[in-house]
Design brief:
The protein is built from ten helices and two strands. The chain has helices spanning 20-35, 48-57, 62-90, 93-117, 121-136, 145-148, 158-164, 183-194, 207-236, 240-261; strands spanning 172-175, 179-182. Strands 1-2 form a two-stranded antiparallel ribbon. The chain is globular, with a radius of gyration of 20 Å. Keywords: Signal.
């Protein structure tokens, strides 16, 4: 399940240029502050079976997280879903694919440095080649030429790198407009934003306007592409919150295991 950050509110003052890293970390810190209130935290149960389930869920702040999830879903039904449906109707599918490609391409530097940090040169090389090829032959990332020549997109971020080092994730958190996370991945998200070059676009030459358009269009496409998945989840799941929590935690652990087990040769397949 992919709940992406909402970047539509762009300010005219210096705070407008505050990175998404700051907002993400501020959100995590705010939730932790709220979590200090007993009513927003579940104490560990005394029954051994219940305690095992409690530890497996890793969600001591479940009352608070459910409130945040309900806030997210209220915004989804009132605003995000209708606007996403309008986006799908108004924007042709090839254009939407290009927008998704641009977002993936501009995230590749963060993927590259995360792979380097994880000690996986082959993965880092693939990320480097994807960025170089798509920024040139792919016209700034609008076309995934790299994927056509064998450099497939893969996910690595600083949170996954920290996880591959054995850093514990900490308690599960749900941050509105960012989605499922934990302390480790919240910090990793901030680092990732610092490694994303689009966040350093300077003033002038309409580049700042491109930055706004990139963030707004990317956010719209992110929500629009998730509509069917969210709708099916709400219809088919007895407890969508628990399902999302479990699926996210399992997916993150699977990604960490994939990184740790990726011991491919440094040279690409075509060189051998």
């Amino acid at each position: 399940m992919d709940f992406r950050q909402d970047d539509n509110a762009i300010r005219e003052t210096h705070s407008r240029h505050m990175s998404r890293r700051g907002r993400a970390l501020a959100g995590v810190l705010a939730l932790l502050t709220l979590g200090a209130c007993g009513s927003l935290r579940n104490p560990p149960p005394t029954d051994p079976d219940d305690l095992a389930d409690y530890k497996a869920a890793n969600d001591p702040y479940e009352p608070m997280n459910r409130k945040m999830y309900n806030l997210q879903m209220w915004a989804y039904h009132k605003v995000l879903r209708p606007v996403g449906k309008a986006w799908i109707w108004a924007v042709p599918k090839p254009v939407r694919h290009s927008i998704a490609n641009v977002n993936e391409t501009w995230r590749e530097p963060a993927v590259f440095f995360s792979d380097v940090g994880a000690g996986k040169p082959r993965r880092a090389g693939d990320a480097f080649m994807r960025f170089a090829i798509n920024m040139s032959a792919g016209v700034g990332g609008f076309f995934d030429v790299a994927g056509l020549v064998g450099y497939k997109q893969h996910e690595t971020d600083p949170g996954l790198t920290l996880g591959s080092w054995g850093v514990a994730g900490g308690p599960y958190l749900f941050v509105p407009f960012i989605g499922p996370t934990n302390i480790r991945d919240g910090i990793g998200y901030g680092i990732s934003q610092g490694l994303t070059p689009i966040n350093y676009v300077p003033r002038g030459y309409d580049l700042l306007t491109f930055n706004w358009a990139y963030n707004v269009a990317g956010t719209m496409e992110g929500y629009a592409s998730s509509i069917d998945q969210i709708d099916h989840l709400e219809q088919d799941s007895l407890d969508p919150y628990s399902y999302i929590r479990s699926a996210w935690q399992q997916n993150r652990q699977s990604q960490i295991d994939t990184i740790k087990g990726d011991d491919r040769a440094t040279t690409p397949d075509w060189y051998n």
